[in-house]
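Quick one - inputs below.
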Amino acid sequence: MSLQSRLLAMLSMSLIGLWLTVAMLMYLHLDNKVSETLDQRLAASANMVAGLIAQQPDPFSQPAREPLLLSPLSEGVACQIRSANGDILLQTAGPRGASLTDAKPGFSTRTVSGEEWRLYTLEQNGLLITTADRGTERRQLENGIILVMAVPFSLALLGSLVVLWWGVRRGLEPLQKLYRELQLREPANLKPLSIGSAPAELRPIVNTLNSLFARVERTVVREQRFASHTAHEFRTPLTGIKTHLQVARRIDGEQQQLALARAEMGVQRLQNVAEQLLMLARLESQDDWREFEPCSVGIAIHEALVDMPGGERVKQFTETGDVFVRAPHPLVVIAVRNLLENALKFSSDNQPVELRISCQSSNHQDLVRLIIRDGGHSPSSSHHGNQLPQNSRSPEQGHGLGLTIVESIAAQFSGHLRAEGNASGGMDWELALPRVF
Amino acid sequence: MHVLIVEDDELVASGLKAGLELHHCVVDHVRTGREAQHALEQFNPDVVVLDLGLPDVDGLEVLAQWRAAGVQTPVLILTARDAVKRRIEGLETGGDDYVLKPFELDELAARLHALVRRAAGRVVAEICHGDLTVRPSTGEVFLAAKPVSLSRRELALLEKLLNSRGAVLSEERLKDGLYGMDTEVESNALNVHIYHLRRKLGKHLIITERGVGYRLGPPVGRPGIET
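Output:
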């Protein structure tokens, strides 16, 4: 059952229950009041007759041989005047008059010819004056009053139910929109939810869902990019190996040896890619890097440059003495090496690669910044910003994977990796890690 | 067939170059989009093998620029990125074929020959010109049903002339088609190849248009009749 149906059912039942209870109480109260009023009218009639007799006592001072008879227009009323010794002096004509004989003073009810009558007898100056109403007329009057009350009451109840239904539907419309939006949404659709002007209660839910969608989308894009990079890193050396082996099969001599040697280079590259992937997996498991000593940046750079092809082109500019960072030494070496290899590969052969080391305080955190500047052949700056370039790669080894590893190291140890184009057409890569004093 | 390879990975490019040369192709290799632009303008290759992940500019951007400039040269996109969206994008940008790495050399060569054939307006693999029959995909040449042995350069020159449909080709254009970016070429190398072709296939196969260049002669008959 939907929330709207449940709410509607609950409110309708409550409303109907309350209104019926009120109606019942009102009916009982009104019934009593009407009976009381009619009794008062009966008593007033008797009093009025008594008043008239008091002003004209002569017709009733002597007992008559035959009682006087009255014939009122309404058949639902009757009257009788008796003397103290029981002689009837005046009464309504017909059985209804005769039936009032022997009525005791005060109110009483008796059945006459199968009909119920309400009697009131007043004793005054030796006379007994009895007035009576037929029950049928009394009930008709009561029912008329109740009908007059019940019709608008019922209409008001129905109107209230309609207004309630409309109000609940309108009030829950944003929730319904959200329900429809989520129900019709394809699993792959990660666009933000749009339900118009969301009420204050729903806004946090919509905002949270939208922020979750955005995060999932970023994650999916990152994973797709990573998968694409990895596929590229695997397929490129594999292509080299396969192509050179196909060539080697068709030729012989020195050229065959050359093709085989190149295929072997491809195998080496493939091995490097596999090792990089294993490193990334170990980084993500985090268990291997729970305890470590602070890393000396100078020593890490020195180790990263050992045996690096083209390492002599790296020019260091240190703005501070040897500093330490809060990250495992082997990982800092890998990060620096990946960045430097990337920069060397994406610079022309005669261009130097700059490595600047500086310290900076940012957001109450002391950071050590390593800025690696290459001179060109880098991906165009249009692909940059705060994000890593999507088509970045290295001709020799896993550029995409290498940078992903650096990014992962930086993120895991509270640092960051940023890239932006520089004036010489190349790229500036900034690796920042927390400084340890 | 003169192939321009635009590939920044030396390992892949060297294997591809060696493999296509085994398929009787004249191959030039460049690493960046800028170099590719220059090579295409300079050497007018028959077909381009284009990698998408170039270091300076995305391969698709290069392709889009070529197509916008009216370049008709067939382009085969060769890439490791296999996303369907990327393939569609490549073909819609102007790529004529899309091959994923790793690939079979024979298949790649066959696809390149097919692209060149279609660009020349032919629907069959063989080029016939009178008694002369050339099968570019295998490098086989027959004259009056007898096989004729041609060197890689001679075959490339013959293909250029056959695909030109009788148009006059300048000496420079023929040299570019034969040697591409190879600058170590003897000044009379083209004349030597033309001489050898005339000797093997008949002296009227190639007609010299003095001061302009060369064009394909009328359909070739038996060598004995022609010479």
